[in-house]
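Q: What structure does this chain adopt?
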Amino acid sequence: MTSNYPELDGYEPSDGRPLPSQRMLKPMRFLVIIGVIALILPGILVTISTATHTADVSCRIVVVRDAPYATGSTARFEFVGPEGPSWYCYAEVQEGPDERLAALGLIPGAPPAPQPGLVRS
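A:
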């Protein structure tokens, strides 16, 4: 019998070694999962830490600029907000609830431009 691929004539799909047993496959799968988690988790933690720090700094700038009467600032990540999932900047007011001043974005960066309706002195 002739084949279309003569270079594969006589090929046997096994190299003669036995396949790993089920007892060996479970620990190997476990180690692979642990290895993947060990590679991905530090990147996620660094990203969250950097975003939190950037949002805090950006929010402080927005509060000093737009709400000089405020006693402090808070940056919070909210999944449900007016602009969707985003970091939101709140001014802590002496008496009353915190005032939302700006949305800093999903990935916070430089403070957004001032909004004329919010600026009070």
